[in-house]
Amino acid sequence: MVGRCVYTNPFSRGDECKLYVGAAWTVDAAQADCAAVFPGAAGVFEPVGACDFDAVLGECSVGAPDADGYRLVSAGADAAQCGAARTGCEVFARGAFAPAGVCAMGDVCPEPPEVTGNVFVQPYTDCRDPLPGEPAGAGPGGQVCTPVIVSGCTEPDRRYGDYAACADVLTQRPYGVVAAPAPAGDDDPRLQDAAWLAESDWVKAQAESCACGCCHTTSMTRGGASGWDTEAGPLWIDTVPDSGLAMLAGLAPSESFGAVDALANNGFDRHVTGMPTTDVERMQRFLLGEHARRGLTAEDAARVPPFGGPLHLQRLYEPTACVEGVGVGPDGTLIWTGGAARYVYVLEADAENPGVPPNLDVPEKTRWLIDVPSDARGLACGMAYGEVPEGARQRVPADDVAPALTPGETYYLYVLRDVGLPITRCLFTYEGP
């Protein structure tokens, strides 16, 4: 072990310590890693081999000890943070979590905490009167109806931020201000190409009609554009990185982000292109032209990994057997680990992993699904299978009781602290009463 890095996790806001335990670490490499321990965040490196927090939530072991493995120690004494610590370790760091302190003590099913922080707002449709001077909408009574979801779009030639709450969209994806690179200079020949400029303006308008604008159109954002900016001038497309351009053009997969059916999305479709569009051929023609203009090839695009990060990895997750006591017991009691939950699934053993709304969150072979509204407390385990606790709703089956479990059959328990944040994913065999 060459030392430790102490820092504040910008996502959990909690103190953490990273121990460089792998044999491949050198002091120089550890210092460099600590200096950029998170994007935009630096830690303090110290050549000591222990973390001296007064109280800890647990320890996360990542990687191989004979290579560049490391351990993350999360400080804290609040049991309400145990689920977040486990999720951060297992989902984002892809490590193994060992609970400690309050996370290793107390009730198996503690009382859910009050709702704090960012909670995923489920998709809904927002219908509003058109802005003064704009034509009547296609919705009831001439209103403009917009799906409020990160893959949603308002009507063409309108701006998404005028007809939907970007604040709710931002609960559904991480957002941070990232300065966009400067576009090409005034001598760029595209500025003299009227046809190109017209197409660029059309693509820009398409992006701004969709929830893309909540992060990538400065005037719609909470604090500034994230990575690329449709308002960076006529050559705004230059602010999109090469990998992002491949994704927007449909050359790199981004299915894990989800998609709204075009019939419910004001004609916008993102099943082919990463950018929702009312004209797939026209959108691809422009974006593929820009991809080629940069000297990029289909082979370059093929090397871009699927977009989605943890969302993509969760779709690939292969569950293993639950630890003893987790699952549906002989008396029908449902037990999970990791703290309060907002979504509880019981699926067939070979079901796909749940993904994000609106099209990936209820996979086939879902037997039972309950959840809670975004302004309600999470659920504590310990209810009976098929029971819907006060404040929760049953989504599957929509209009019937939960189907009985068959003794001797194996089922998949999938429990989320919030959308994209699983805390229990495992297979249990129901023993029956």
Question: Biggest β-sheet, characterized?
Answer: 6 strands, antiparallel
State the shape.
Answer: globular
Compute the number of structural domains: 3
Separate helix tally:
10
Oligomer: single chain
What is the structural class?
alpha+beta
| Average pLDDT figure | 94
**Order of the strands making up the biggest sheet:** 3-1-2-5-4-6
- The radius of gyration is 24 Å
Q: Helix proportion of residues, in percent?
A: 10-25%
SSE topology string: EEHEEEHEEEHHHHHHHHEEEEEEEE
Q: What's the count of strands?
A: 16
Q: How far apart are the first and last residues' alpha carbons, in Å?
A: 51 Å
| Uncertain regions spanning at least 5 consecutive residues | none
Strand content: 15-25%
Question: Would you mind describing this structure in some detail?
Answer:
With 433 residues, this protein is an alpha+beta fold. It folds into three domains: 101 residues, no CATH class; 179 residues, no CATH class; 112 residues, no CATH class. It has a six-stranded antiparallel sheet with strand order 3-1-2-5-4-6, with helices on one face. It is globular. The termini are far apart. The model has no long low-confidence stretch (mean pLDDT 94).
